[in-house]
Amino acid sequence: MAEFLLALILLFPLSSSAQNTPAGTVPLGASLTADGTSDPWRSPNGDFAFGFRQLPDNDDLFILSIWFDKIPNKTLAWYERTSFPVPRRSTVVLDAANGIVLRNPQGTVLFQSNAVNGGVAGGYMNDTGNFVLRRSDSATVWESFDNPTDTILPGQIIPIGGDLTSPATATNFSQGRFYARMISDGNFVLSVKSFPSGTEFDDDYYNTPTSDTSRSNSGVQVVFSDDASLAVVGPNGTSLFKLTSNLIPSAADNYYRVTLDFDGILTQYYHPRNFTGAPAWGTADSWPGNICTGIKAGTGSGACGYNSICKMENRRPVCQCPPQFSLADPTNAYGDCLPNYDQFCVAGDRQSSPENYEMSNISDVDWPFNDYFSLKPSTADQCYSLCLSDCFCGAAIFRSNQCWKKRLPLSNGAVDTSLGATAFLKVKKGDNPNRPSSDRTKTKDRGTLILVGSILLGSSAFINVLLIAAVFLGLFLIYKRKSKTSVRAAPRSNLYCFTYKDLFDATTGFAKEVGRGAFGIVYKGEMIVNDSKTMVAVKKLNQASHDSEKEFKTEVDVIGLTHHKNLVQLIGFCNEGPNRLLVYEYMSNGALSSFLFGESKPGWIQRSNIALGVARGLTYLHEECATQIIHCDIKPQNILLDDNYNARISDFGLAKLLMMDQSRTTTNIRGTRGYVAPEWYRNIPVTVKVDVYSFGVLLLEIVTCRKSVYPNMEFSDAENVILIDWVVDCFTERAIGTLVGDEEEAMNDGGGERVERFVMVAIWCVQEDASLRPTMKEACLMLEGAMAVEVPPCPYPIFSATTSVV
Q1: Please, what CATH class does the domain formed by 591-806 belong to?
Q2: Residue 720: which pLDDT band, with cuts at 50, 70 and 90?
Q3: In contact, 503 and 579? CB cutoff 8 Å
Q4: Domain parsing of the chain, residue ranges
Q5: Which residue in 150, 203, 285, 633 is the catalytic one?
Q6: Which is nearest to 158 in space by CA: 221, 216, 212?
Q7: How far apart are CA 362 and CA 324, in angstroms?
Q8: Does the pTM exceed 0.85?
Q9: 67-104, pLDDT tens digit by residue?
Q10: CATH 2.90.10.10 for domain 24-281
Q11: Is 633 a catalytic residue?
């Protein structure tokens, strides 16, 4: 009895405290862990929850999100996109200074809400689905409703300048191509981009008529009201244009959301609040009516991928490949289609002859762009023959007595019965030697079996035994070879999983070293990838990682999900005991360091293009890929050049993969001297701004063709980063020409305006105060001339009171 009373006394204060905390309230210090068991922060009525949701196709990856908690499929209403996906054992905590702080298992900050104006006193998960952070005076300092991703809920608005962005696919929540925007002229538009990292929109494929030339009655925001009505309203709050039909189910009986889906359709969904079984979301309305023909941009692929055909079914686009074309990525039905054959156009080459091709007729299909020739008047037969006899022609469109010849790839393909068009698509005739290898292998295997069977029937028993043994040995060796080159690590990332022997053989025993750095040694090799010989770079990782095999695999998957033209592509990996290696595509023109600091000085235009390429690649790593990646070692040696001298960033993701502690002090600085941000000297967590600093130094090296430091200088010397000092002096004295040696090509580029712009951006990037540095996206926009560049202050605060930069 005494033990029972003691336990009751000890538990009573905890019970009282829990009862005194209102439902939905999240106190400072509260935290959640991404492990599948952590209880989320729920709204008072339990309709919504905030926390980690496990991805359906990977038990070790999660997404920080808000979701509908009372329905079976737990549909997301908000999520943190820049960190997607986060690995198991990541944590989120409510912090007094920074609000929501998301960290990976190693403690690196992946996201923070940066609530300001007096700090944070606590959080609250509303019944509306809005998670808010409040000050001690109850004022709101951050809310999820002000930071939507692809969805808005009743009570939420989209102001001028606000937008929704679609996910990349139905299961990949990184940034997609489609946008729902409230623009400054007062219209609400749906737009598409070829590349999420780009600054220009290809086309607006839906537009509300809410712009007024006088601006006195133009739209100012999109309002999703509590009665589930979606409308554009004017300055006085009156509805200018109602998008939602009046005939929709009651908002009192249904949950509602408006979501910009990965296929570009803005859809208003409803789900019954009270139900039995597992009902799906119903569609109350959607926009536009036909996205297949609605996108009319001459750039980009359209609603579907290149060479694809878009068809509307139940107000949604369905994409399909034309005859003898297959998906480039079998897991993405909305992606590009590739021909199953090679189309030759070589003078005198037999394979270029029209007799090897035929035309596949497709009714009511049009690819409206990519024309290079047209003929009017024309007949269908003439159009057919014109394309067949022209080795440059990939397809021809015939309608209204006119013929258009087109080159591959084809864009904006769509079924449109109103045109009366016929598409003639050129395909390989008969038994195609270039069809997929699996078909060729099956045919070859059948022929082999027939041949072996014939020999066996005509041979003696002893010879038959020998032949059978030889056949089984051959099949075993073939199977072993195929399994060696065809095993994939993960369907999500399409990475190859190689054995250590594979890579030992490919590099001839790791004989040719082509580089080494903080993460390991790189060897040149050659191997069969996708049935063709490929030059590869094999990196032997340092033995600095203590993570488990599952954690290593998770981090490699994350690296494998990155795809950008300014990144070196990861092909595969090896994970055998202590041997951990990564296999990359080989860059023929080596590192930027050799190109930049060699005997001959590269031209200004080429250097400026390289700088822009690095900026775009870093922007993708920081803001646009599935998981935000901090590089931690940006320098010329880690910028490689491909066959066309395009900049390709290497070694991204390795700092995280090798579990580098990104909050160490000066005794364990990560990175390379001369490029290291001041944060590394202080006991504070690093952010993406360390890469911005390193990029600023690299940008100055690209502009001046001078190294940031000299080899004979000690790392602890206060004057080691002499390049920055020299540049600031020259900029202060208006001696921009000195920085480029009065290079004629540079000074003729806008009268030196571009050089000055690059220098100002670089000085902003190397500010000692990280909060003054731009994001990589802002730096990229400034370099491209799409954003104005203010005159930067001196990078070192100690001099700011006495030094004036004009």
Answers
A1: mainly alpha
A2: very low
A3: no
A4: 24-281, 309-428, 437-486, 591-806
A5: 633
A6: 221
A7: 13
A8: no
A9: 999 999 999 999 999 899 999 999 999 999 889 999 99
A10: yes
A11: yes
